[in-house]
Design a protein that fits this description.
12 helices; 6-stranded parallel sheet; 5-stranded antiparallel sheet; 13 strands; 311 residues
Amino acid sequence: MSFYTLDSEGFGAVARFVADGWDQDECVVVVATAAHRAAVEALLLELGHDPAARVAAGRYLTLDAEQTLSELFVDGHLDPDLFMRRVGEVVSEASGAGRPIRGFGEMVAVLWQRGQIEEAIDLELLWNELLREYDFSLLCAYPTGAFDHAELVDVRRVCDLHTDLMPVGAATSTDGSRLAAGHACSRVYLPTAESVPAARHFVVDVLRAWDHDTLTTDAALIVSELATNALTHAASPFRVVVDRRRGDLRIGVEDAAVTPLRRRPAAVDDVSGRGVDIVAALSERWGYSPVPGGKVVWAELTLDPGRSRAG
C-alpha cells in the first residue's frame, strides 16, 4: 500500500502506475474524483493507452470518489459493511478474470480535505482490511499541502498505515509572492529522505522572498540538521516553521515524537551525531519545546543582514 502526494506531477505518477498495470496484464480499479480521473485518463492517452478500450475489455473499473463516499455514510458515520459491499464488489469483479489487480484511491483524501480526519483514518483501515481479503497493490494520494495545517500525530497515523511513502512534484516548489506577504510560513513533510532537501529549498525560498538572502547559508544548514534529526531519531513526519514575528528569525522543526531531545557527544571518528552541535554553533539561541504529541526543536538567527556564522 503506497502513498503519493498528488499534484500536477503526481497525476503523471498515477497514470504511469495505471499504465504499468495494463502493461503487466493486470486489471485496474480507480476510485477518484471526476476531475482527477479525467486528468489521469488524458495522460494515459498520451502514454498510448485507451481507457475506453480497457473499460470495454473489463480491464478498467472506476468509481467516483465523492459519489461513493455519499453511499458509505449512514447518519454521518462511515459504515464498514457498506464499504465492503460497495468497494469490495468492484474489487471482486476485477479479480473475476483471475488477473492481478492494482488500485488507485483518493476517497481518504476527500475526507481529509473536508476535515473528517478520524473518518479518513477509519477508511484507511477498511482499505487495509480489503487488502487482506484480496491480494492487490493499492496506491493512495493526497493533494500537495493537505497536511500543512494538520496535527502531526494524525499525519503519522496515516503514514503508519502505508508500506511506502513517495512524495512527488511540488514538495520543492514555493510561491514566492505568497511567501513575501507573510511573517511566518510552515510546511509539513513526510518521513522520507527526499524531505530533507525539500525542507532546505523551502526555507531558502522563504528567506529570499523576505529579502534575507545573507541568512540562507546558515538557515539551510540548520534546517537540514533539524530535519535529519526528526527523520533519524523521531522517525515521523515533521513540520518546518520559519518565523520572523519575534524580531529575529526562528527556524523550527516539529516532530511527532514525545521523547525529549538529547545532545549526544560524538567521537572524533564518528561520521554523524554532530547535528545539534552544528545548530548550536550557527544560531544565536536554540532549544526545544514540548507540544501536544511531540516537540519543536528551534534555532534563532539575528536578522542583521551583514552577519553569517557559516562564512
